[in-house]
Design a protein that fits this description.
By secondary structure, this protein is mostly helical. Helix 2 runs antiparallel to helix 3 and helix 6 packs antiparallel against helix 7. It has nine helices and two strands, in the order H-H-H-H-H-E-H-H-E-H-H. The N and C termini lie far apart (about 75 Å). It has a single domain, classed as Up-down Bundle (Four Helix Bundle (Hemerythrin (Met), subunit A)).
Length: about 280
């Protein structure tokens, strides 16, 4: 035999090894799936003209969506799969669901303008989520770039919940209310894709000790909200939606930078577009 021929590796040894399968963390993705179910439940309720239940479904999805990331960080179970799953869930619960709910509730009677407003909101939610995913490494963590999609969804369905609680049922036959819903939908959708800074509360640490009065204030806030949940919840998110514009104007007045992008990674011909 030629020298060294018996030292050649077998064909079986040369075959590439199969990459090891990566598992999926159950705990944080259970919260994400539960949030997705909240959005799906809201759509089904809206199709059955149960708009108060639809609004509650979106609010439940908001709570669950705020927990999945925290649970993943606390248990050290972050994953790329979880990030993609969270974005897809957000698109359903805070993009498609509010747009379909508001359309069924009030915008259907406006004809083409109605579904155009609903589509503007839905597409703005998709654009906002895509921008958030691509700019996550360059945005100041203390602020959101544009209104967060859960807050925009709360603004839309909170208005529905408030009006439904006030006794307005056949909204498609009430012109002023349908046009008000039209304005709220456009405002929420377009605010998502602005560069207006909204405080993210991410620098608030739950592990840090706080004065006793803070706990008392939180208890009082919960008690006040329970006096009339539809009105107080809607007012809370209206205040948050306006706060971004007030922050923008205040920074302009003080001569401070209004952009939340700290470092630009865009192409050279796009320099300055985020200012």
């Amino acid at each position: 035999m030629p020298p060294g021929e018996d030292d050649r590796p077998d064909e079986a040894d040369e075959a590439p090894r199969r990459p090891r399968r990566k598992g999926i963390y159950i705990l944080p993705n259970l919260f994400t799936l539960a949030a997705l179910f909240g959005g799906f439940y809201a759509i089904v309720m809206a199709m059955n003209d149960r708009f108060e239940q639809a609004a509650i479904g979106v609010f439940c999805a908001m709570v669950l969506d705020s927990l999945d990331g925290r649970v993943a960080r606390m248990t050290n179970t972050q994953s790329a799969f979880g990030e993609q799953m969270d974005s897809l869930s957000d698109m359903v619960s805070f993009g498609a669901a509010p747009a379909l709910i508001i359309y069924e509730w009030a915008l259907r009677g406006l004809g083409k303008l109605g579904w155009i407003a609903a589509f503007v909101y839905c597409s703005a939610a998709a654009l906002r989520l895509a921008r958030f995913n691509t700019n996550i490494g360059v945005v100041d963590k203390r602020f959101f770039q544009g209104l967060p999609s859960p807050a925009a969804a709360a603004l839309v369905v909170g208005f529905i919940w408030l009006m439904d609680d006030a006794g307005f049922r056949d909204v498609n036959g009430i012109a002023w209310l349908a046009w008000t819903a039209f304005a709220v939908t456009l405002f929420a959708g377009l605010t998502m894709v602005t560069n207006v800074p909204f405080y993210s509360f991410k620098d608030v640490s739950l592990k840090r000790s706080v004065p006793f009065v803070v706990v008392v204030a939180i208890s009082l806030l919960i008690a006040v909200i329970n006096l009339h949940p539809p009105l107080l919840m809607f007012g809370l998110f209206v205040g948050y939606a306006v706060s971004g514009y007030l922050t923008y104007l205040w920074r302009r007045y003080k001569g401070r930078p209004v952009s939340v992008i700290a470092i630009s990674t865009d192409e050279p011909d796009e320099e300055g577009l985020h200012r």
